[in-house]
Amino acid sequence: MPSRDGRLYKHELKELIEQKKSEIIELKTLYKIAPKCFKNDPRYIARNKSAVIKSPIYGWIKHHWSYNTEDATDIIFLKHENHIRVHSDLKYDPESKYYFGIYDTDILLDTKRKHLRYIVNIEKRRKEYREKYEAV
Prior knowledge:
alpha+beta, 5 helices, elongated
């Protein structure tokens, strides 16, 4: 809200500060309400428990292979683009709190080792899947 000459005068600055303060208060109230909705969600609990763990490599993000409370701090670090790809190839089962692979729905990825093996073979599985269904 600068004036015509491009300067920000004292009264305009006060109005701008008050506006920003009210926006911040609205955001804070939203964030206070949101956790109450998710407090029993295992994904929310796992995210909070692992919040203190920092990435060893800048730009890599956390991936939970399991949302059980005992596995909440046992995480895998992935590049952001790989993390998106991995989640597009996984299906979450809320009852067991583990993932299934979308290509092998009968295989429950209930150990970190199985989960890592699945991640490593995602490209191979995608290629096989495409060849199988594009040929039809």
